[in-house]
Each structure stands twice: as C-alpha cells, then as structure tokens.
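Folded chain entry —
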Amino acid sequence: MTGLIVHEWLATTGGSENVVQSIAAVFPDAPIVCLWDDLPSRFEAGRVSETWLARTPLRRSKALALPFMPAVWRNLPNKDADWVLCSSHLFAHHAQFSGTARTARKFVYVHTPARYIWAPELDGRGNSWLARTISKPLKTLDRKRAQGDFSIAANSVFIQKRIEKAWGRGSQVIYPPVQVAAFAKDSSEALTIEEEVLLGNLPETFILGASRFVYYKRLDVAIAAGVAAGVQVILAGEGPDAPRLRALADEHPGVVTFVPRPSHALLSQLYSRALAYVFPSVEDFGIMPVEAMATGTPVVANAIGGASESVVHGITGALTYSFAPSALKEAVEIASLADSSACVTRAWEFDTRVFETKIRDWVQA
C-alpha cells in the first residue's frame, strides 16, 4: 500500500517533529507534505513537499499565516495514495488532496486540537487580538471538518478528553515516542572537559528543573520546591523567562545554579544525578519526565496534564495539585523514596519502538 504523511510545518526541533520522524521511519516510502520545511536536511531530498505558503513571508509568522491555513490544507495537489496519515496540532487534519488520495483511508494523530482556539488559557498566543478575532469562526470550521470519515489517535488521555470536548469525537491513545535508550545508558564518556568540571562543581544533592525558559513551563516552581524541601536547585536551559527566573533565584542566595544550553550528554547526567526532576507545566504529554525516569530519576509532576499519565505517584515520583510550599515539600519527599529501577522500567513503556509498533498496527489494521 502507498501512503502519504501530512504534518503542519517542519520546525528545526520539536516534539511533533520527533513524532513525524518516527512515523517516517515506519513508512519509509511515504512522501511527506507540510506547509513549509525549516530543516530540509532532516529527510532525504525530494521526500518533503511544501505548500505555496513556503514561498511567501507568511512562513516566518505563524500568527499571520493562521487564517490562510484551513484553505491551503483543503486544496492540496493531485496525489496517489491508499492512505493518508496526518500529524496535527493545528489544522493538518483538514488535509484534502486531489487524485486517489482524496478518497484514501485517513488517519489523524492528534498532538492537540489547536490550543490557540480550543485552550487559550494554556497558550498565550490564543490571547492575541488576531487570535481572539478569528477564534469563533475557526472553532466552527474546525469542529465541522473534524467530523470527517477518519480514525483518530490522541497522544495522551488528557488530549483524548480535549478532542471529545472540542470535536465531539472518540479516539484511541498512542503515546508519542521517547528515545529511552539515549538516556537509559551512561553518557559520561561524551562529556567535554568543561562539562566534567561543571558537574564536579555542582551540589551533591539537588533537584532539577530543565526545559525552555518560557513562563508556562513554570520553572519558578522548581525553585520553590527546592526552597521548601531545603535542597539545592539546578535550572538547565535558556529562554525569554530567564531574567524573571534569575531574579527569583537572587531572592534565595546560594540555592539556584543555572546551566545554560546543556548538551544531550550533560542533560542526561543532570537527570541521573538529580534527587528528582520537577515538571510543573500542564503539557499534552511531556517527553522530559520520561527521559528523567529513563535515567532512574523520579519526577515531581503536575497532577493535571499528560505527565500524570507517565509518572506513577509513589512509585516513579509524585503528582501534585498544589504548588504551595507544604505540598511541594511533601512531593519531593515522596519522589525521593521512589525506586530507580521502577523509574527505568516505566520509561521503557514509552520507548520509540512501542510507538512505532502501535502506529504500524493502527494504519495496517
């Protein structure tokens, strides 16, 4: 059978791009169609086709391109295919081709219904003037097109419920792929001399907060958790929220150490050496908690969101509904008692090979 893979746009990095790469590995002969491709070297030459938006300045502004996307997805060129698999976090599930692909069996892997319009409280971009103006008509259109004759897989139970609420559609859950093997082994040999020195100067006991430094990641909670539990804190990453986080750190001298732009090898070591990894944000799934567990480190995670589906309270970490100091102290204490081998075992349940098997079975069933 011949197939087509559809994705919103291919950014240089990102969780949804990792999903597309895994899907592409399962179906190596399937061409990929996207709005635009910002890393052409990711796939072999000729495999990825872009839409006309890629030839306009709109590719540099998702907000300005947003109103055009539904029409672009609905008027795709002539393609031959027996099936079409859409990887969607905005409007890719609207995709409609000419040719045999127009009536091909369709599968939609949903990272989330568009947060801009369906969950603006979780995505600040949905609060812009433009997003608020077009939100209502886009909701109507999106719900209508989501009623098409296609099978849906959600990337978590959390998103499965959002799909039901937004579109009134049922779905199955296929968790996204995590490169567990890349974190389940000791990567200390790949460290640079500078990184080895940095690790040697870190506190013996610390909790870790690591991600992009953006507000919704709530890395301030990692600082609060360390203060509440009387434990040093390492914040790894960088981003626009760095000034706020550094100002908070200054309120607790000697507690917080920043590690900007950690390499994969360094991040793996930070995971494995941490008392616990703190993940307070509300995410669709959450890859980094699984990475931390793959190194044997327990996780303190928000009880709301996808991370609550990978972290097992009292077994591989702790889930908390509150960020009050007493609740954070208790969560760190519970997580610190988790068994390292249980964390690793749990992480393997979300390995890339598990995802690839389930995606193949879904499409070929």
